[in-house]
Every structure is written in C-alpha cells, then in structure tokens.
C-alpha cells in the first residue's frame, strides 16, 4: 500500500503503529494525560476533542492544543471530533465542525485530522480541503456501534474514503459473534491487497474484537488503538499489554 508519513511515523509499511487517545474534559486533565504518554511506547496520539468540555469553543481548543503539543514533546497528533452520531460525546453543527477543525489545521498544531465519511458532506469536504492546503493528513472514518456490515459493504465504504481524497481509510465495527470478527479481517485484507491506494485502518470493537487489534499487521491494517488510562472506544487494551504481541507478530512475518 502507498505509505503515509506523519512527522517521523510512516503508516502503511513495517510494523503496525499504535495510536493512543487522550480524552480529558478539562485543559489541565488533557495536559496531564499528554505528559503521561511520554513514558509509554506509542506512535501517535489521538486527541478526542469531543470529550473536552469546551470543545465547541475554537479559541479554547487552540489554547489547550498548544499546551498538549508541548507536553507530547514531538509525538504526532491526530485531531478527532467524534460526532454524537458515531459514538462521540457531543453533538456539533456542520459550520462548527468546519470552524474547529479548520482552525486546528491552520494553526500548525496538529498533524492529522479525522473526517467522518457520513457526516455532513459539504462540511467534511471543507475540512479535507483545508487539510490538503496545509499539509495535514486526513483519516477518513466510519464507526458502526450496532453491528458489522458485510465484507463488501465495508470495502465499499473504505474505497469511497480513498476516492474522496482521504489519506487513510478507517472503519470500526461492532461484532456480535466470531464470524463478524472474521468478516472485518477479511474485508481488511481485501482492501490492503486489492485497493492499496491508501493505508487502511480497521478494528472490530469490544472484547470479542480484541484479536483484530492484535492481528492488524497480518491482514494489512496500518495501525491500531490502545489505551493509557481511559479508553475512547470499547475493546481498547493497555498499550503495555499490546506492544509485546505486535512485536512478536512483526518478528515472525
């Protein structure tokens, strides 16, 4: 697959990269979480800004972003406002979505931005345009907390993200049984092997789906999410437990 470089991290080649979220509700809590991550082995930090109490205030978001960047000491940041419709903490209007994402993109404080594939199309396109103009990577995303679509539907959605201009195509699904986990893994391999224009990033959520986080490199998922402290989605495991498993797989592939 065509790799994507975010600072010194390359997604789409080599070992599966690890992304850890910060989910603080206050500025001080966010800075404390960011500083804590310095002691852990990880590749990128996702700031789930929708957890932040002042997430709809772009000035407040910019102010704490500068503090987070300092605390992370060079680790790349994926900025994500997860909307209420896809499991996020807050609802947001399209104009606010564009304003907040664009403000962070243009500030130079973030390295990648998440754009939900099924959120307001004009708003998403505006954010993608701002990211392209400022050299910020775009992670197209879709999250299904109610089930696992058929493999061909998963692939169709991921390809649509590629065609829209996203640099990375991401999908997270909820399994109801082991067959659903296999469906997600199969769709991931199909994407990685047959549609390699961008890296793909997938996961099956909750406890049943933990194997998908561990086996990401086997099927071609470029990264996975782990946690330090509080999880941002069901099924994330502590980063210190996940890293040895990823290292073991990498050494044998």
Outline the secondary-structure elements.
Blueprint: E1 4-6, E2 9-11, E3 17-22, H1 27-37, E4 44-48, H2 58-72, E5 77-80, H3 94-107, E6 112-116, H4 121-133, E7 137-144, H5 151-164, E8 168-173, H6 178-194, E9 200-204, H7 210-214, H8 216-219, E10 223-225, H9 239-251
Parallel strand pairs: 3-4, 3-10, 4-5, 5-6, 6-7, 7-8, 8-9
Antiparallel strand pairs: 1-2
Protein model, in words:
The protein is α/β, with parallel strands linked by helices. 42% of the residues lie in helices and 19% in strands. It has helices at residues 27-37, 58-72, 94-107, 121-133, 151-164, 178-194, 210-214, 216-219, 239-251, and strands at residues 4-6, 9-11, 17-22, 44-48, 77-80, 112-116, 137-144, 168-173, 200-204, 223-225. The strands form two sheets. It has an eight-stranded parallel sheet with strand order 9-8-7-6-5-4-3-10. A hairpin with a 2-residue loop joins strand 1 (4-6) and strand 2 (9-11). Helix 3 packs parallel to helix 4 (121-133). The longest helix has 17 residues, at 178-194. It is globular. The two termini are 16 Å apart. 47% of the residues are buried.
In short:
42% of the residues lie in helices and 19% in strands.
Give a quick set of tags describing it:
alpha/beta, 8-stranded parallel beta sheet, about 250 residues, two-stranded antiparallel sheet, single chain
Sheet/helix structural class: alpha/beta
Averaged pLDDT: 95
Sheet of most strands: 8 strands, parallel
Q: How is the largest sheet built, in terms of strand order? A: 9-8-7-6-5-4-3-10
> Could you tell me the radius of gyration in angstroms?
17 Å
Total DSSP helices = 9
Number of strands: 10
Q: What is the percent of helical residues?
A: 40-55%
N/C terminus separation: 16 Å
As a percent range, the share of strand residues is 15-25%
Shape: globular
Give the SSE string.
EEEHEHEHEHEHEHEHHEH
Which spans have pLDDT < 50 for at least 5 consecutive residues?
none
């Amino acid at each position: 697959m065509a790799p994507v470089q975010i600072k010194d991290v390359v997604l789409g080649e080599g070992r599966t990269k690890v992304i850890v979220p910060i989910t603080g509700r206050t500025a001080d809590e966010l800075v404390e979480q960011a500083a804590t991550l310095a002691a852990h082995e990880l590749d990128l930090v996702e700031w789930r800004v929708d957890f932040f109490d002042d997430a709809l205030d772009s000035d407040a978001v910019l102010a704490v972003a500068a503090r987070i960047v300092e605390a992370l000491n060079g680790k790349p940041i994926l900025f994500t406002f997860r909307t209420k419709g896809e499991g996020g903490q807050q609802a947001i209007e399209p104009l606010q979505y564009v304003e907040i994402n664009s403000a962070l993109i243009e500030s130079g404080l973030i390295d990648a931005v998440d754009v939900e594939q099924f959120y307001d199309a004009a708003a998403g396109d505006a954010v993608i345009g701002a990211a392209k103009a400022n050299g910020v990577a775009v992670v197209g995303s879709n999250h299904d907390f109610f089930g696992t679509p058929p493999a061909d539907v998963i692939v169709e959605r991921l390809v649509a993200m590629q065609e829209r201009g996203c640099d990375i195509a991401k999908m997270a699904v909820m399994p109801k049984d082991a067959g659903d986990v296999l469906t997600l893994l199969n769709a991931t391999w199909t994407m990685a092997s047959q549609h390699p224009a961008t890296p793909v990033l997938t996961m099956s959520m909750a406890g049943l789906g933990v194997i998908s986080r561990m086996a990401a490199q086997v099927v071609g998922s470029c990264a996975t999410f782990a946690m330090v402290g509080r999880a941002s989605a069901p099924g994330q495991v502590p980063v210190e437990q996940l890293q040895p498993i990823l290292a073991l797989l990498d050494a044998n592939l």
